[in-house]
Amino acid sequence: MTAYEKIDVVSKSATPDDAAMLRAAVQLTKDITTARAAIYWPDCFLSALVGYAALVGAILSPNLLLTVGLGVIAALALYRALLFIHELTHIHRTALPGFRFAWNLFVGIPMLTPSFMYENVHTLHHARTRYGTPEDPEYLPLALMKPWSLPVFVLVAALAPVALLIRSAVLVPLGAIIPPLRTVVWERFSALSINPSFRRRPPEGAFGRMVFWQELGASLWAVALLASTQILGWRPLLTALGIFSVTAVLNQLRTLVAHLWENDGEAMTVTGQYLDSVNVPPPGWIAPLWAPVGLRYHALHHLLPSLPYHSLSEAHRRIAAHLGTESTYHGANYGGMIPLLGKIARSTMVRR
């Protein structure tokens, strides 16, 4: 590793906080911090409705081109609905009454990704002393790893739907009668994390009870899906798994460009975390497709984790206008997925 490369790696963890930026982010957004049910409910469940309708159409279509077209629509719509799991981890438990239950019933359990798989996991990623460290379940120093790690990171996501099906239909029921297996499944295969060393702690109290019912629902649904092949044949299930694989890969690509992944394991300041994260603001029009539900403003989200997704665009406009293009805030803004993929890929090719 050259001296320049070493400085480049360390600078992220050594970045001092920009007090003016942090203060402006809070003060300029005080009036837009409430999650609005009139936006959350129709956005999420109309997306799910479109997704499921397109999925049924793809299954029933006799035309390959139409099947592919409907499959793309289903993948994008269900992707948007699924990513409301991110909002569930941040909104206050008393906000949006009934939304968590409805989301799990109509999105989380049908897609075998109930909300417990992200709740009490994603918040660790936002912990001041955990972000970018080995204790962060959602961080790998991908920019500092070998070039082959990037395609492997993306392509392994294609197997996620099959893995989730096996988990809920086979491993969870077996774990109910084999306690050591139950422990392994919970610790290692019950969180939407990318850090292979992350081990999840046992659920307790009200959260534990919620996990039980969500696990039961997901397992019953997974068994029903497998059983349906004896009546409907394999096409419906395989088509759904294929569409869900597209969704999973798209989400993995979004995850890959959500951060620069340049931290070397040391704890970071809030400003350091911000600069290691990514905003893809307008005028780009395609970002809402691959980073929906406000995730095109991922760096801003790390400044204001509890800000509802529908307020992020306005928050970005206010903060950017107030601080200007020469500010630290501007340093996390990028032009799109392709430039970001190129930047991270080039980082992996630097000899260290």
UniProtKB/TrEMBL annotation:
Keywords: Membrane, Transmembrane, Transmembrane helix
One GO term describing the cellular component: membrane
Record PANTHER family: DELTA(5) FATTY ACID DESATURASE C-RELATED, FATTY ACID DESATURASE 2
Residues annotated as transmembrane: 38-60, 66-86, 98-118, 148-166
Superkingdom classification of source: Bacteria
Keyword Membrane: yes
Annotated organism of origin: Sphingobium subterraneum
Gene Ontology MF terms: oxidoreductase activity, acting on paired donors, with oxidation of a pair of donors resulting in the reduction of molecular oxygen to two molecules of water
Ranges for domain Fatty acid desaturase: 67-325
Gene Ontology annotations of biological process type: lipid biosynthetic process
Entry keyword Transmembrane helix: yes
Protein name: Fatty acid desaturase
